[in-house]
Amino acid sequence: MRTLSATRYVTPLREGGSCPAIVEAEDSGMYVLKFRGAGQGIKALVAEILSGELARALGLRVPELVLLELDPALGRAEPDGEIRDLIKASAGLNLGMDYLPGSITFDPTVRPTPGSAEASAIVCLDAYVTNVDRTPKNPNLLCWHSALWLIDHGASLYFHHSWDDYLERSQSRFPAVRDHVLLPWASALPEALATLRERVTADVIHGIVARVPEAWLGPTQEPRFSTVTEHREAYASFLLERLNAAPAFIEEAIRARAQLV
Q1: Percentage of the chain with pLDDT > 70?
Q2: Helices then strands (H, E): number in the chain?
């Protein structure tokens, strides 16, 4: 992943609880900055990287993710005191997502609807990474240039908010899939499972886990782990064990869809 410095604070985005902001970076690009000092903290940023890059490995569209160095002085002109405090608390390394100008939020009531292969791949991904935040109320899908783009994966991989019995919990059937916004169109789930198994290999998982910054891992962030390497291996172990649960969570998705259509 590229590491850039934010050079200009443009405007806050007040949707959602984390209150991201649009910033300009040293490459003159515009990014949606996800603050390390927001609600779920650094763990949400770790989830953004892992789930976003797993989606990319599956061939799904995700805006480029970058690491953004933030100088809190950039937000000194922000009139909202709470946002200024958030910027101050987020000094250092944050996460940025390429800004898609002119994109609009996906609306399941507006046609054209997604194809079955794409819908199934997204449902399969979200069941794999236990993403509870792709619902009709909050789809976290953007329509840009007549294509669907996946955003905001900070609520996924929620197991890491409590590491107790995490390998056992990796076997979850993920019943929350019943609320997935794309489930009605996901008629090719067995094929999506085959693609997941083909593309998400142990090497891919370890490569993606390696992209998480060292500063976001280890005993300073999670006392359970004595080293950064141990922390990385725990994430990789969860994702590998989660693959073993794929038949169960796909079966759960198929069962939930049958109750809708």
Answers
A1: 98
A2: 8, 8
The answer to whether the beta carbons of residues 142 and 32 sit under 8 Å apart is no
- Predicted TM-score (pTM) of the model is 0.96
Residue 261 scores a pLDDT above 90:
no
Rounded to the nearest 10 degrees, what angle do helices 42-57 and 228-244 cross at? Answer: 50
What residues does 23 pair with on adjacent strands? 9, 31
- Which position has the token pair 């209150």? 19
Q: Are strands 141-144 and 104-105 parallel, antiparallel or unpaired?
A: antiparallel
The pLDDT of residue 16 is above 90? no
Q: What is the pLDDT of residues 132-144, one digit of tens each?
A: 999 999 999 999 9
Alpha helices in 58-187 (DSSP H): 81-89, 116-128, 166-169
Residue type, 143: C
DSSP H stretches of helix in 11-115: 42-57, 81-89
Radius of gyration, alpha carbons of the chain: 18
Q: Give the number of other Cβ atoms within 10 Å of residue 149's Cβ.
A: 20
pLDDT band per the 50, 70, 90 thresholds, residue 175: very high
**Alpha helix segments (H runs only) across the chain:** 42-57, 81-89, 116-128, 166-169, 189-199, 202-209, 228-244, 246-258
Query: Is the distance from CB of 227 to CB of 219 less than 8 angstroms?
Result: yes
Torsion, CA 57, CA 60, CA 64, CA 65, rounded to 10: -60
